[in-house]
Amino acid sequence: MNHATDRGPSTTRERARAERTAPAPVGVVIATRNRSASLAVTVRHLLALPERPQVLVVDNASTDDTAAMLARDFPRVRVITLPVNRGALARTHGVRALDTPYVAFSDDDSWWAPGSLAGAADLLDRYPAVGTVTARILVEPDGTEDPIVEELRDSPVPRPDWLPGPALGSFLAAATVLRTDAFRAAGGFHPRLWLGGEEELLAADLAADGWWLTYADHLTIHHHPSTVRDATLRRAHGIRNTLWFTWLRRPAGPALRRTLHLARTVPRDTASLRAFAEATAALPWVLRERRVLPPEVEARLRSLEPAQRDSTARSYTG
């Protein structure tokens, strides 16, 4: 008697059918607020992916028609509605609600290309010391590469021979797939940083936990920047959060150098002044929470300093 059917699919066709119907190992978390039109485009793209990922939207207390639109047009999408705007912390709420081994983030104006989530999952399956995989970013509607891609591709961070791509010192949340357990163990996004360069602190803590961060050029995410955004406020938060990360994790010498570099190079205006004032006012809790990175992780960040100083993609504008 042939018991092949007792052990699962026995033909190529049956195995392919099982793979198509199996739950995806990657869930997608989208944090959103008051951008229902772009969110609808993003969700439609994600639901059409061959990987059939779980899609979870965390609504940061939207006051537009986001809730009604999701209920009407995408009833099978999971939604968490927060009572107040939690910024990037909304992503942490989303990851806590997922049951997939890997999590991808999308902004409400970005979506993953077909096959990229599966490709990221495959890399994480094959390389157990890799904690994050960051994809190539194409800016729509023209499909041009985001300027940051060249810096990711040419990252100067020293890498072990086995790492499948360039080693990174940080990642961009909306272009990255992470190990869910690693994200949770590192504590997710810091609740005080809110939004704007919030990835840098989490990336350093993941590296301190022993994880490698890498870039994969064959994976792609599309970004169609929303026009509904406050670029000046985002710049102020980015400067403040860079200072907080620097003071929380870098040794005294590098922290002082980066602080002085920012003071010399950011725009001389009210937004920058407010950012430095907010950062300085927080010194009591920053010093309480300060935990200097291990030397090997600090060495990776030092290797990035020349590229950061010369970067146009990472400059604070708006």
Features:
single chain, 318 residues, alpha/beta, Spore Coat Polysaccharide Biosynthesis Protein SpsA, Chain A, 9-stranded mixed sheet, 9 strands, 17% strand, globular, disordered N terminus
Model description:
The chain is of the alpha/beta class and 318 residues long. The chain has two domains: 12-223, Spore Coat Polysaccharide Biosynthesis Protein SpsA, Chain A, CATH 3.90.550; 231-310, no CATH class. The chain is built from 13 helices and nine strands. Strands 1, 2, 3, 4, 5, 6, 7, 8 and 9 form a nine-stranded mixed β-sheet that branches. A hairpin with a 4-residue loop joins β6 and β7. The longest helix has 19 residues, at 231-249.
Quaternary assembly:
single chain
Q: How would a textbook summarize the main sheet?
A: 9 strands, mixed
- Name given to the CATH architecture of the largest domain: Alpha-Beta Complex
Shape: globular
Mean pLDDT: 91
Q: What is the helix tally?
A: 13
Based on DSSP secondary structure assignment, what is the total number of beta strands?
9
Q: What is the helix fraction of residues, given as a range?
A: 40-55%
Derived structural class: alpha/beta
- Unreliable stretches, pLDDT < 50, 5 or more residues? 1-21
CA(first)-CA(last) distance: 72 Å
For this structure, the CATH topology of the largest domain is Spore Coat Polysaccharide Biosynthesis Protein SpsA, Chain A
Counted up, domains total 2
Indicate the radius of gyration in whole angstroms.
20 Å
Note the run of SSEs as H and E. HEHEHEHEEHEEHEHHEHHHHH
